Amino acid sequence: MRFGWMVLVWGFVLTACSSGEEGKQSRELDSMLRSMSVPELVGQMNLVNSPSKEDEESFLNAIRRGEIGGVLNENNPERIELFQRTALNESPKGIPLIIGRDVIHGFKLIFPINLAQAASWNPDLVQAAAAHSAREAARAGINWTFSPMLDITRDPRWGRVAESFGEDPFLAAQMGVAMVKAYQGDSLYPESLLAACAKHFAAYGAVEGGRDYNTVAVPRIDLENIHFRPFREAAKHSVASFMTAFHELNGVPATANRYLIQETLKEQWGYPGFVVSDWASVHELKNHGFATSDAEAAHLAIGAGLDMEMSGSCYSGELEKLLAEGKISRNQLEASVRRILEVKMKLGLFQYDERRATIAQRPPRKGEDLARELAVQSAVLLKNKGQILPLKLESIQQLALIGPLADNRYEQLGTWIFDGDTLLTVTPKMAFTNWIGANKLLYEKALANTRSADTRGINAALEAGRHSDVMVVVVGEESILSGEAHSRAHLGLPGAQTKLIQNLAELGKPIVLVVMAGRPLVLSEVEPFVEAILYLWHPGSMGGSALVDLISGKRNPSGKLPITFPQTEGQIPIYYAHKNTGRPVDERNHVPMETIPERLFQTSLPNTNHYLDIGSLPAYPFGYGLSYTEYAYSEPHLNSDTFSRSDTVELTFILQNRGSFAGEEIVQVYFRDFVASRTRPVKELVHFERVSLQSGEEKQVKVAIPVQALGFYNEEGNYLLEPGEFYLGVGPNEASIQYQTFHVID
Ligand code: BGC
User: Fold this and answer.
1) Which residues line ligand 1 (CB under 6 A)?
2) Is 278 noted as a catalytic residue in this protein?
3) Which of 212, 430, 615, 737 has its CA at a distance of 20 to 30 angstroms from the CA of residue 590?
């Protein structure tokens, strides 16, 4: 009887929804909300970790009482089905559960880590990959992913750099929006199957010292222009939910930060979705020294606009009491639950059987080619001395494949691979065997793992190297060395890997270094000893195949760095979009420290913004990446030298492929606003595209940039475009651009 009533009400709601009568739908939702008891309202705000088998019955009873609105960390379809049926058929209002999971860069099939995906500069491919994962996950009953992660980070020490799209807000926004589109499509249902979650709001990537969970102090102007940017774009693209973060921002923890959640996201941006806490981060308000009790924590969080608590008992244990004490209002609860129920409705969860049938009709296609393609396009060629790559198979009698990551099905997958299937992995060893045959391949692991200081295996590796024409050495860091809570202070190759490479180099044979890592590593100690460096990041399931595609010359590397690589840890943070300062550095005037005469007068050296011992340059700049061919850029031209605010600047140049390989060049367009009421970076990425060119081919490339795209936000979040002098430039990376100046007039 009870269920029959429910179906009727929701049937009405959904008809109203599909016929576009939003006002009607909204009124119906209101009356549903009014009919819900306080424990039922609080239940919708409660996201609970999936129980152990022993706790399952009491968990089901809690669902029956309407005390659970969502479940996370369950990937077993039968169990999810049981939870959903219990919620639909036995809970007071029959409201289905939202089922969340970290589907971050793959589900069963693992794509390259997010930082690597950003190195592809190919949002369409990133979107296709995420759509594949969405189908895989939806089939298991998952309907919500805690992705995309949109934290801008300029600190490779931070372990979560692996999950990020790197240092640039524009690039990260493009990638984030691609993922939102993949998960959600134009309509969450029936077109698409997963709700997305933009996380972690906001500025989590700026944790002090790159140490996870650490304090963050970022001025509002930088929040607006750097950290908010990808989140603002995700909100514009209707991302279904937002997640708060673990850190405190400018003295107020993100999970109870009213300025972030209520004032900026919900009021200023008009965001209609719901906001979930990060794992137990409401309880952690006490550790921050921001709340004395769970009750106060819940009070502060709901007051800040937090709609749902993930894995905690502050909301479930305290909200009802806070209401009874008059500290919060029923309206507050209803407002949050309304946001949550709207997402559940848009996901088609109330048409549960129909939704299941839709999912069954859309099995994931085989994704291996996609994963291989994304790994190919994500790989960055950092060095290729004497064009040693691609390797010429005919001139190789024996190839030595060496290193702790050359044949490890798990470690090449990267962080956040809860559901990853290692049986799908193709390791470098597997792919090399396929390519050159087992009889030509000498494989030595050399070190037990990347951290091992036990050098006993190096002799065998030397032996293999001695009998080979070329050595491919696969090093880096295991997945556990990056990701949440896994920050590092030293960014060199861990363990005895440097020694391994230096010893191998003594053989006098060419070394191709392949790096698998979750972050930019400092490679200065090994770079001089190797002929080539191919940076694969953690490339995912198909990393081995992608590596052979590139090394064999079947494919031409095209990836470009989405983050600056430092020469040494002491330079961090180092990023391209820095400010000019009052004493800008000119690297040409750098005096090497060793050459400074003794007793030199303090002001005799250039007093500029640099390090005496290392200057100002990174190891590899943002946007950097080589290929097997050579691209030449002509000087760009603009269609005018004066523009009004409503104009579009057209930048035209010729791109030529002067080498003997076909390839794809990632063309990058940057601008600079020379003088403004707030200082602006020395350059900012404003456009990029992949241009494919046959050997010898040239193309005219025309890029249209609306003048409106060249503005910035002030501290209050108002977008300003001030007249004055600008430049627009193009090049293969941020450090090698050619530009033209122009004026924007009122
Ligand atoms: C992480 C989130 C993640 C959540 C759920 C937290 O520890 O910070 O990114 O989505 O756990 O697994």
Assistant:
1) 102, 146, 199, 278-279, 484
2) yes
3) 737
